[in-house]
Specification:
Number of helices: 11
Radius of gyration: 19 Å
Helix content: 25-40%
Shape: globular
Largest sheet: 8 strands, parallel
Number of strands: 12
Distance between the termini: 39 Å
Strand content: 5-15%
Structural class: alpha/beta
Length: about 325
């Protein structure tokens, strides 16, 4: 991939900007899977731009502002042609689980903070990171729409929202993108949601497309996870689930060997083959992994290949919930 430019592009919703077929999820740069290194993060973002990536996904809760500041620093002088996305809605509760806030007053406050941290005048795509069930979605999206009117945001998105909530949101203001976990391992909710988003011309942005590393074949050393690495808390990695999931992934690895590619490249190519509405945003802290992931763009899959890959991990076959039980109460609502 050295020196290559990603030429395939996807449209972010019918009313949205064109973006690279594979974006970069920036959460990993904030110490979620171990310690963070801002200098290395800036270098990775610069390399991604060299390779043609123009879609960078952040949030105000990734490092509680640190991630937005890192992204803003990395994109200084490189803003032209770049899609900056960020999110609001999760609130910090020291010593406890995150809260949620979808109130109009909070949205205005959160947007101002993100603009400052990113060092920009406008956020291209602004998501509600988690649904606030205490606030009608019409009120939340109405406040987001006012940010568009004020020129502070260009396009709107929702994360982890059910189809009926998305439909209500879209009736209030056009939604350009919906973001949820979507991978070969976990795809039930994405499949249900895309039945609606495709009809409305909404892009589906797939986070955790590599199953939080499970689908890459690179298995974390659970006995020696770096400080801050949260994967040990995810049910998919629990001993009683991990063995079953590894058996499923080994089927993927066998096909990847046949195709002379890595498992990560195979599953990303499979995701891209689901339709032009799907935009995976794998995250990484390493340039070699970034280059590996973008190699998925070179892989051609036939219809028979796609069906065969789908059959390796049937719908609903993954062992373990997507999040710990408490976290599941805040997604797909």
């Amino acid at each position: 991939m050295t020196g290559a430019v990603v030429t395939e592009r996807r449209r972010l919703g019918e009313a949205g900007p064109e973006v690279s077929a594979i974006g970069l999820g920036c959460m990993s740069l904030s110490g979620v899977y171990g310690t963070s290194d801002d200098e290395a993060g800036v270098g990775l973002i610069h390399r991604a731009i060299e390779l043609g990536v123009d879609h960078f996904d952040s949030s105000d809760m990734y490092g509680w502002g640190q991630n937005e500041e890192l992204l803003g620093r990395a994109l200084k002088g490189r803003r032209n042609g770049i899609l900056i996305t960020s999110k609001f809605g999760q609130t910090r509760r020291p010593g406890g689980a995150n809260g949620v806030d979808g109130s109009p007053a909070y949205i205005a406050q959160a947007c101002e903070a993100s603009l400052k941290q990113l060092g920009v005048d406008v956020i291209d795509l602004y998501y509600q990171h988690r649904v606030d069930p205490a606030v009608p979605v019409e009120d939340t999206v109405g406040a987001m729409a006012r940010l568009v009117e004020q020129g502070k945001v260009r396009f709107l998105g929702l994360c982890e929202a059910r189809p009926e909530r998305i439909r209500r949101a879209y009736a209030t203001h056009p939604i350009a993108a919906v973001q949820s976990e979507f991978s070969l391992l976990y795809r039930e909710e994405a499949t249900e949601t895309r039945a609606l988003t495709r009809d409305l011309g909404i892009a589906f942005v797939a986070y955790a497309p590599l199953g939080r590393s499970l689908l890459t074949g690179n298995i974390p050393d659970f006995a020696n996870l770096a400080e801050g690495d949260t994967r040990g808390r995810h049910p998919r990695f629990a001993p009683q689930n991990f063995a079953k999931n590894r058996e499923l992934v080994q089927r993927v690895e066998a096909i990847a060997e046949e195709k002379d590619c890595t498992p990560a490249q195979l599953v990303l190519a499979w995701l891209l083959a689901q339709g032009p509405d799907v935009i995976p945003i794998p995250g990484t802290k390493r340039i070699d992994r970034l280059e590996e992931n973008l190699g998925a763009l070179r892989i051609d899959l036939t219809a028979a290949d796609i069906d065969r890959i789908s059959a390796t991990i049937p719908l609903g076959a993954a062992a373990g919930l997507r999040y710990p039980e408490g976290g599941m109460r805040g997604v797909y609502i």
